[in-house]
Amino acid sequence: MLELQELLKEVNAPLFELVKQYNEKIIQINASKVLIEKITLEEVTNEYIDFFLLDDKG
Q: Which domain of life, per UniProt (predicted)?
């Protein structure tokens, strides 16, 4: 029984590391998506503001 537990530890260690790396990549991807959405929102907001400021002057 002890041998089986040791074998499971050996098998689970690399799997645990893979899951950890996967989760880190997902976190990076989600952070990138948030940044892209923020930049897009700022660009649209700036265009909207510029349009109305130019419209008021013109």
A: Bacteria
- pLDDT tens for residues 1-51? 789 889 888 889 899 999 999 999 999 999 999 999 999 999 999 988 888
Q: Considering only CA atoms, give the Rg of the chain.
A: 25
Give the separation between CA 43 and CA 30, rounded to whole angstroms.
20
Q: Which residue has the tokens 């700022």?
A: 42
- What is the value of pTM for the model shown? 0.60
What would the two tokens of residue 31 be?
């952070």
Where does 1-58 show beta strands of DSSP type E? none
Q: How far apart are CA 29 and CA 23, in angstroms?
A: 10
